[in-house]
Amino acid sequence: MADQAARERALGLVLELVVLLGQDMSKRLEQDHLSDSRAGVLWTIRQQGPMTQRELAAARHVTPRNVTGLVDGLEAAGLVRRTPHPTDRRATLVELTGAGTDIVERLEREQLEFTTLLFDGMPQEQFESLTRGLDEIVGRIKGAL
């Protein structure tokens, strides 16, 4: 078990990492005038496919009203479109447009490049140890929430 000073140092590094990753992501999203929330909507649709706004709200853990505002903004920017639901005439599906897909694909490429920057050259044993440690930390945080 690590001593108190080592634990405090580890926490400080985790917090610094959170800040640095947030700054990097914000910088990347600013290029496309995207907020974290709007980018999250694009990522969700990319990963799960077209969905209703209610499904999108559940997937993003936000209110349907919040999703309406996000989708309105993304639609105005030409990044998503609403289409009639094929089986429920009361609902619409939200899907990516070509421009929305282009942005998400570029962000995916940038994420892959960033992964390479972070982990290339790290010895396999160190990488596996880091991954196990991060899994443990994430699990503890999720368990506490």
Can you describe this structure?
The protein has 145 residues and is mainly alpha-helical. The protein has helices at residues 4-30, 36-48, 53-60, 64-76, 98-119, 124-144, and strands at 80-84, 92-96. The protein starts with a helix and ends with a helix. The chain has a domain at 28-119: Winged helix-like DNA-binding domain superfamily/Winged helix DNA-binding domain (Arc Repressor Mutant, subunit A). Helix 3 crosses helix 4 (64-76). It is elongated, with a radius of gyration of 19 Å. The model has no long low-confidence stretch (mean pLDDT 93). One of its GO terms (molecular function) is DNA-binding transcription factor activity. One of its GO terms (biological process) is response to stress. This is HTH marR-type domain-containing protein.
Keyword list:
two-stranded antiparallel sheet, elongated, DNA-binding, transcription regulation, 145 residues, single chain, Arc Repressor Mutant, subunit A, mainly alpha, MarR/SlyA-like, HTH marR-type domain-containing protein, DNA binding
